[in-house]
Amino acid sequence: MAKAYWIATYRSIADPDALAAYAKVSGPAIAAAGGRVLVRGTPAQVYEAGLNERTVVIEFDSVDAARAAHDSEAYQHALSLLGEGAVRDIRIVEGAEG
């Protein structure tokens, strides 16, 4: 079974305090669901139509595990803390094998 990657880019951050509250709760919720944060921060370099946006990449054992983490009660609570504090683009992508 291929691993899956949850990729989040932050188009804008309107409330840094809400983002901090979200981060404090979301990290443990994601880890409890089997997620492993691989990347968190702004790009060192962007090319072509790339945007200089905060990016987070989280690895899961499968697409189902990534979906379950997102839909979990613990992560949904974290989202409630974020509220309208940020505009994000989140994608779950299956990893390429081999």
From TrEMBL:
Residue ranges the record marks as coiled coil: none
InterPro entries given in the database record: Dimeric_a/b-barrel, DUF1330
Highest taxon in the source lineage: Bacteria
Pfam families for this protein: DUF1330
Protein name: Uncharacterized conserved protein, DUF1330 family
Annotated ranges, domain DUF1330: 3-95
Organism: Consotaella salsifontis
